[in-house]
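Our preliminary data section would be incomplete without showing what the modeling component actually yields. Below, a chain of 317 amino acids is followed by its predicted structure, encoded as tokens that our downstream tools consume directly.
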Amino acid sequence: MAIAKAERLMNLALCLLGTRRPLSKRELRGSIEAYLEAGSDDAFNRMFERDKDDLRELGLVIETVENLDGDTGYLARRDSNRLPPITLDAEEAAALGLAAKVWQQARLAGAASGALQKLRAAGMPEAEDAYEVHSALEPRIPVHETAFEPLMLACRDRRPVTFDYRKANAARPEQRQVEPWTLECWRGHWYLAGWDRGRGAERVFRLSRITGRVRSRAGAFTAEVPDVVTVRETVESWAGETATRTALIRLRSGSGYPLRSRAISVRELGDGWDELEIPYGHGLDAWLVEFGPDVVVQEPADLRADVVDRLRAVAKD
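Predicted structure:
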């Protein structure tokens, strides 16, 4: 569905850019296959108006011209849609190269590499890459979950989806109907924020807990989409970034570096264990479970109980 729409938009843009005179709706419908397949004039008109608005939102300047006979035509003049020359210094080129490398594990890698090649062909300077050979560190955003790409497209196209989701303390997955807002990466894990239709509230889903296929559904969103900053704050709070109190845990010596980096205080207990005081917010129990036997929660009691429940649910499998 997303590919068909992208192809239709591209064809419409090429028609409007490739003409020297305004083209009427009738001419555009006869030139673009997707419009020919529209079931009725009303269906075509709705499709065309949406496509025209989408192209304008993407930045294409489309003029509406009325001729002497009163007919309306459309065109996109090349001089109004020509980008200025791209000039980048070495530091800006290095930043783009670094950003392209981030997506090596995703299917966006090809698009990122192709964009760099085009920029270099246009004269972008070859920047010295400090991350190329001499560094043991490489910037990456890992994308192992098969749900990432269909959800990314659904977020972009504002399409509702359904998928089976298994909560950390649940034995079986359950189907969720979601209006996806955005994908956020937090501590190496991808999260989807959106509106859960079944619960009538915003929810955050960890992609690694989505099982089976992500299926697109027709229809428009029923809930208002918040701004990006608000959604990012929701993900951080849901995943445990926003702390409201502290927790005391025992951590095996030489393990759990991410926990140590957040610790407010660390005390050696001996016998291969340390005691850490760490910020405690929503989602901390799910994070602690990932460290398995290297972590023991001492307090508070409710956090300890949540971690034990999650471990028991995993053990039943």
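The first strand starts at residue 23 and ends at 24. Residues 41-57 form the longest helix (17 residues). Preliminary results of this kind motivate Aim 1 of the renewal.
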